[in-house]
Amino acid sequence: MTRPSLTERLAANSAERARAGLLRRLRTIEHADGAWVRSGGRRLLSFCSNDYLGLAQHPSLVDALKRAADDDGVGSGSAHLICGHRAAHAALEEALAEWTGRERALLFSTGYMANLGVMQALLNRDDVCVQDKLNHACLLDGAQLAGCELKRYPHADVEGAARQLRARPDAAALLATDGVFSMDGDIAPLGELAALCQRESATFMVDDAHGLGVLGAQGEGSVSAAGLLQDDVPVLMATLGKALGCSGAFVAGSAALIDGLVQSARTYIYTTAMPPALAAATLAAVRLAQSEAWRREKLQALIARFRTGAAQLGLPLMPSPTAIQPLLLGDAQAALAASQALEQQGFLVTAIRPPTVPQGKARLRITLSAAHEESDVDRLLEALSGLRAGGPV
Ligand SMILES: Cc1ncc(COP(=O)(O)O)c(C=O)c1O
Known about the structure:
Order of helices and strands: HEEEHHHEHEHEHEHEHEEHHHHEHEEEH
Protein name: 8-amino-7-oxononanoate synthase
CATH class of the largest domain: Alpha Beta
Number of domains: 2
CATH topology of the largest domain: Aspartate Aminotransferase, domain 2
Largest sheet: 7 strands, mixed
EC number: 2.3.1.47
Low-confidence stretches: none
Pathway: Cofactor biosynthesis; biotin biosynthesis
InterPro entries: Aminotrans_II_pyridoxalP_BS, Aminotransferase_I/II_large, AON_synthase_class-II, AONS_Archaea/Proteobacteria, AONS_Proteobacteria, PyrdxlP-dep_Trfase, PyrdxlP-dep_Trfase_major, PyrdxlP-dep_Trfase_small
Keywords: Acyltransferase, Biotin biosynthesis, Pyridoxal phosphate, Transferase
Shape: globular
Helix content: 40-55%
Bound molecules: pyridoxal-5'-phosphate
CATH superfamily of the largest domain: Type I PLP-dependent aspartate aminotransferase-like (Major domain)
Distance between the termini: 51 Å
Number of strands: 14
Radius of gyration: 21 Å
Mean pLDDT: 96
CATH architecture of the largest domain: 3-Layer(aba) Sandwich
Number of helices: 15
């Protein structure tokens, strides 16, 4: 037999990653308490979670989850279209639609599934999907799964996006971008991209996983902060596992879009609905994110403090106004060494290496949260300045 072994090939791939110093390692967090975690028996101050508003352990969320579980149990029991769609899901969808200024919203179990489902439902083989080169992996995977032509443009390059659209003038087209880029923290040129989509009759989709809760006067996200409405961005997707501190995702838009997704999005139809207690907890998180503006204000103050301090130290900051404040180190080994050195000093900051980011663009993906205090940021800056003197940064 000459048939290759799939498991041996997988093992060879892993060995190759190890040789290149790119092995991914799983870490168990034994306990989380605000921005602090315990791992390997050590207490570490985390600067790598996406819990931007510090809601993941808020007593209102925990209470809502417990009460709903007492009332209604844990699992939803089935897919939404069978008998899994509960009152808690419906209430959350209504609140999310209202918050984002859309007619309707539809829950998905994860952001990854939402993006796969939207693209598979909207796009056919003859269509084109135009995407920023730095879009999240699940947007890229979604277009590939849909079987359409995927055309990528240089990061945030509106003219590049225009060229890609014009190359296929007769094809139905979706232009998709992260609202806030997950590894860089910068905000897409949403107004210009929306205008381009209008001119080119393309449908505009924004994945606002890292903007919802953080940007906009009431946390409505990057699209609203850019002054754009449903007609400008007909397909809005965001996740519930980041600033809202829960898990899951939603797509918001016109009633026609949502009805169409219910009919056709396979990752909505053929999967178990999220636990209703999680939907109840998420609704509590939405209410807090809307009403407690101090969380966004505190986060902004911490971002400003970090950027000022890092600039004074001459650290390789990236042009990000959001909670994601990466330090670009370039070399994967340097990023890993910096992460390990920080851990020695009691900080958890993950190194992000290729292929998650492009070759030569390894970084420390530092994230800030309303759960941090000014003194936490100062301590991190002090540790980074020590590293700088010692080499890796
Ligand atoms: C921009 C973006 N979209 C989608 C996702 C996927 O969301 P989820 O974690 O809910 O699958 C992520 C990260 O997780 C993300 O950063």
